[in-house]
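Tokenise the fold.
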Amino acid sequence: MAERPDLAPRQVESAVGVILSRIVETLEGGGRVELRGFGMFSVRNRIGRPGRNPRTGETVQVKAKRVPFFRSGKELRIRLNAD
């Protein structure tokens, strides 16, 4: 998009910002976002678990959390592994 002569850099920045904001909003709501040929963004739940402080060796409880997850699409994998 940035290389198109009819688009100003600010227009490109704004468009990309809107797209990324919508992806984040969808993930916050528990949804998933699929970009055909590229991949899928979703949220995974990690359960709480015991962990270890690497500095002191002390056992600590790691809280449950939600983490973003990306799964690449078939077309992307094929293009990356083309000889």
Observations:
- The chain has a mean pLDDT of 92.
- DSSP finds two helices and five strands in the chain.
- The chain has two domains: 1-30, 32-83.
- Helices lie at 9-28, 74-80.
